[in-house]
Design goal:
three-stranded antiparallel beta sheet; 3 helices; 83 residues; globular; alpha+beta; 37% helix
Length: 83
C-alpha cells in the first residue's frame, strides 16, 4: 500500500503533503530534521491520510493536493483551527 499524508506544523502554520509506503517512518524522519523543507517546523503532526494500491496513484493524488484546487479541498476537509 501507498499513502498520501498531510502533516502540519503549528510553529510555521504550514501544511506539508507527501507520499510514502511507511507513514510512521516518514513522519519520524520529518520530526528528526531529515527533510530540508520540514526541518524548521518540528514538531509535525499528521492531520490527513489517504491509502492507494499503487505508487503512481498516490503520486497523482499528492500532485493534486499540492495544486490550487487540492489546497482548497484540504482547507474544506481539514480545519486547521481545530488542531
Amino acid at each position: 500500500m501507498y499513502y498520501v499524508y498531510v502533516i502540519y506544523s503549528k510553529k510555521l502554520k504550514k501544511r506539508y503533503v507527501g507520499s510514502t509506503e511507511n507513514v510512521e517512518r516518514r513522519i519520524r524522519e520529518h520530526n528528526n530534521g531529515k527533510n530540508r523543507f520540514t526541518k524548521g517546523g518540528i514538531p509535525w503532526i499528521k492531520i490527513y491520510l489517504e491509502e492507494y494500491e499503487s505508487r503512481s496513484e498516490a503520486m497523482q493524488r499528492e500532485s493534486y493536493l499540492k495544486s490550487g484546487v487540492g489546497r482548497r479541498y484540504l482547507d474544506n476537509v481539514v480545519k486547521i483551527d481545530d488542531i
